[in-house]
Amino acid sequence: MNSFLSEPGAMRPALVHPTQPALRRLGFWSLLCAVLLAAGGCATIPPDAGNNPVDPLERLNRHVYAFNDGFDRAVAQPVARGYTQVVPRPARDCVANFFANIGEVTNIVNAALQFNVTDAASDTGRLLVNSTAGLLGCFDVAKGMGLERNRQDFGITLGKWGLPPGPYIVLPFYGPSSVRDAIGEVPDYYTDPVRLVNPKTDYYLIYGVRFIDRRSQFLDTGNLVNDAALDPYGFVRDGYLQRRRSRVYDGNPPPTKTEDDPDSPDFKDPGGEAKSPAGAAPAGKPSVPGPKESAPPGSQQH
């Protein structure tokens, strides 16, 4: 008995409770929620938050946006700037091309699911050419051959199948998304060759390098948003939704309905009267040009 207890680790298996992994995961998500709530204290919440039909979760989204912005300023941006300062541009281009090349697998699968034979064939050609002549994707040889990259994901595929985007959401560490696009991340994960990397330490290392590489390509974007937009959150939300809608319709989306937009001239109030455009005279009264409508001397009106 004494010899058994004296063996190192003899009783260790009995001390590991089967619920410990689940408790660790629960602890992680509890900690994340606590951090989000703490970061939410710095979030600016407008009084009409949640009234936008595309963003009913705006109050929660703004908390997550504030958390992501704080993480980006404190961690992601400094690391990405250090990466650009230490790693030479040719090496960074090679890394970016490598990750873009393995991303062609996702592009091919989604193009096929969209029944887009042309893009699926083009992306397959890009993968074959760049994986061989491009030295595992280090060089984008296929682009010089006229094979442009067609970025696809399952969120776009679901949109082409007719699934609406659903409410706008902001995901921790990930950023702007929608219910449809968030669902699409699941099948896209399984078409990502990086997930097959073992051991997991190498997987996390490659994933981290890809994250830093992608963030380094948009270092000036954050400054542009914060400097140009009075409400960076709304600017990012509207830009994201417009871009995703354009992607679903291949750059030619149909016109949106404006009857429910209070800022639209076509908006009808509950009384049934159409809203007059800004600067227009009320019905029955002649329109009198104001100072801003008068043409400057010597100019011609068209």
Descriptive overview:
The protein has 302 residues and is mainly alpha-helical. Among the domains are: 86 residues, no CATH class; 87 residues, no CATH class. It has 13 helices and two strands; from the N terminus they run αααααααααββαααα. A two-stranded antiparallel ribbon has the order 1-2. Helix 3 packs across helix 4 and helix 4 packs across helix 11. The N terminus and C terminus are likely disordered.
Could you give a quick summary of the protein structure above?
The protein has 13 helices and 2 strands, in the order H-H-H-H-H-H-H-H-H-E-E-H-H-H-H. The protein has 302 residues and is an all-alpha fold.
Secondary structure: elements and pairs:
Elements: H1 2-6, H2 12-15, H3 20-40, H4 58-86, H5 89-102, H6 104-113, H7 117-132, H8 141-144, H9 154-160, E1 168-171, E2 175-178, H10 179-190, H11 200-216, H12 219-228, H13 232-248
Helix pairs in contact: 3-4, 4-11, 6-7, 9-10, 9-13
